[in-house]
Amino acid sequence: MTAMQIFFLIVGLVILGSALMVVTTGNLIHAALWLIVTLFGVAVLFAILNASFLAVVQVVVYIGAIAILFIFAVMLTHKEMRDRGPQLNNSWWLNAIISLLTFGGLFWMLQSWNGFSKVAADFPSSYDAVGQLGNALISPDAFVLPFEVASVLLLAALVGAVYIAFNPHSGDSRK
Amino acid sequence: MNLWNDPVNFIAHWLTSLFVGWGMAGWLASLIIQLIGVIVLILLMMLFDIFLVWVERKVVARFQDRLGPNRVGPFGLIQPFADIIKLLIKEDITPDGADKVVYNLAPILSLMSVLLLWAIVPLAPVIFGVDLNVGALYIIAAGSIGTLSIIMAAWSSNNKYALIGAFRQVAVLVSFEIPMIATMLIPTILAGSMGMNEIVQGQQTVWYVVLAPIAAIIFMIAAIAELGRSPFDLNEAESEIVAGFHIEYTGMKFGLFYAGELLHAFTFGGFWAILFLGGYHFFGLENLGPLVAAVILFAKAMFGYWVIMWIRYTVMRMRIDHMLAFNWKFLTPVAFVLLMLTALMNTLLRGTPSGVYILGMFLTNVLLGWIIVEILRGYSRSERQKTQNVAPAAATAHH
Hints:
A: Four Helix Bundle (Hemerythrin (Met), subunit A); B: 15 helices
């Protein structure tokens, strides 16, 4: 077992353990903080795979924006941070079986894939991974269409949010 | 390779041969040397932080026409050490209603988010932590950990003032991040890379403050907002919410927030120098040796820090709605227009001789600046007319 594999196992355990804490802890803010640990672990996985851009974007978007938004939503809507209801419902065993089957199915499928046990190769020192990614995003041969469609979707969402929030009848009192 | 031309690698090689000579495995030796490098960098920055306490107190004293610390040691230089001893022997209180783990973790994360930034600072061509190819984004990522530490501190303190401070701070951070990212993309466009080393190397002939002066100003404003310093110090606002998010912290835990804030200001002074003021370049003086280059960068970072202090102790605190309107209706559109214009001009002028290129970029900025000033003048004129046309309440009562 190489040092990288040991490191990967540690990171994987941290991700799974903190993800488990997200759903089992009673305190909603603690759940959000554990979620941040999980997301940070995923960023570390990206870093292990030499995807530095994705690792940093993972931290910026998921920890810097989404997790903080979660915490705010919880703080502003819940007076009592503790969730006191039962944590399991009657069909927990069914869900457990389904998730185990899904995991087993994925594991079985991936084992027959020949890339499963490969170690990620290092980039040559002059390889500009970020530049390649940028070119791929705007090149017609690669991902320009999904990229632009996603941006139009986000723009539409933004315009929609402004339209909902904007009330023409209640401007500021000076008008 | 000798000690003068490449001090870090020289010492690293010497240590490697020493450790391997003791019979240590090669990978273990290099791991230990990397750890030593990290610890030495952090220790240097923390020791420098002690000096920054003195600098901040002396400079604010000059701005306020006082003397500042002047009793302990020459020019009061030993004063910060007395402060540290005081902070260390103060009672360490964790409030009863506090969430203990989160409460004690927050100051550590706060200082960590600042120290993380020094990993990518190129002190000299051969002295840097790591040459990350996504350096500009890394700054934002480290900043989001700082935001997180503020929320954690405020929520775990179980104090309403703390929570209000955190709400304000996050509203500011989330919105001023946008012009900051947009202006950080401008050196990225000019250098063709997000890595700090390449951005500094791109400024060998001309500093980016000449090619993008408006971007430099907007970056500085956004950096001050990110630091939460006056005129954007609503998160602390001692006259309204006492001290904001760190109201419950005592002793060295408060000291960590305070030290983090000072070092953060100095660090952003450093990034301002790296992105716009040429980094370690100073008219060829940096070629004397890496240590000279590091001193140049520190001097420039000190200049940036001084500008931040100058604004902090001169300008009054802004109201939050003014601040957010200023960001969303002014800084963000200007930053995006500037970004598009810089990208366009950079492409158009790429093949031209460097004199035409520099002049073209500079004149583009001057033109944009002129248009901005004209728009602002029209806006302020219409605002003034609005207030002039309203008759005072006392005058209308007589009719």
